[in-house]
């Protein structure tokens, strides 16, 4: 198959959408498909173009057999809603350099568009219509819903315009998929998708990310002792998580020097968190950059408890991508989630972690104390077992490839793709 992937994030980004899109592209190429990718320079979650790509313009490189076409674009030093919009549109405009030849070149069998940004789908929709190519839109975050609910964009007229653009794109996609059952329901309730929204969950390589003994963790490298009780947050430091709660909670443990809070990652909210730590004069909070993928299992083994936090308004609009690694590493997660959301339901049903109320310092402190005084063995064992049974990379991507082939073979428009089978509760993460 000749496959075109279009998205703003791609390998070698270590976290978020770029990690999964990059792994998908590599897997498809190594499966024997011809894969082209139109994307940006790697920049996330640091919001700074990686040193390896600084100063480059339009160029093509190969990553694991995929042809990756890179485009220059605007990356703001300080991320605001307005600057983020400019950032995303700069990529759309820049990507025309590679899209124009695509419109007149050899026809692809299928185009896969990654959202967010939601409006990236506009160019693929026009290509799909003109060349009669099936278009698969995969939604990792419900970007507009989140911007509205988090108060990031308050102009009602502008929000209405964005929702109309989103509806136009989704209505003209052949297939729409997303990563959790809760998000499937939210997309379905928009009533603009041609058929059923397909569940395409994130995955984890259980051979690479697995439980390790403490002796093989990064404790020594990160200046921690074996007796320290480590609360770890690793990933993007953005708005949707509400990470200032970690700093506020750390104040409650200043008289317990063995309890350490480790924040590993980058993002637009890092400066604010560091300033808050300095303001309170805390010595029990430490910041470290994202670790290479080859060290991820060792990093996850460093933690006694993993912090998975998100705001109430982000419930079922996003699903923390870091959770797959935590489960595969046999970690116990302290998760803030509202009842009846996908995240809450799965954690509770399979007893893979401790659940707390979102956006509550008191609940976070009580949750940490409960974790410190409990035997977490059962949670860790259940987490690893769940990952082995439900999040396997090979199984997930093989199933996706099967649907993708059926999808492409059905022609355009897609009239004969079978309705997806009912999703079992064990598959919702």
Automatic annotation (TrEMBL):
<dbReference type="Pfam" id="PF13579">
    <property type="entry name" value="Glyco_trans_4_4"/>
</dbReference>
<dbReference type="InterPro" id="IPR050194">
    <property type="entry name" value="Glycosyltransferase_grp1"/>
</dbReference>
<feature type="domain" description="Glycosyl transferase family 1">
    <location>
        <begin position="219"/>
        <end position="388"/>
    </location>
</feature>
<dbReference type="Pfam" id="PF00534">
    <property type="entry name" value="Glycos_transf_1"/>
</dbReference>
<dbReference type="InterPro" id="IPR001296">
    <property type="entry name" value="Glyco_trans_1"/>
</dbReference>
<dbReference type="InterPro" id="IPR028098">
    <property type="entry name" value="Glyco_trans_4-like_N"/>
</dbReference>
<protein>
    <submittedName>
        <fullName>WcaI family glycosyltransferase</fullName>
    </submittedName>
</protein>
<feature type="domain" description="Glycosyltransferase subfamily 4-like N-terminal">
    <location>
        <begin position="15"/>
        <end position="203"/>
    </location>
</feature>
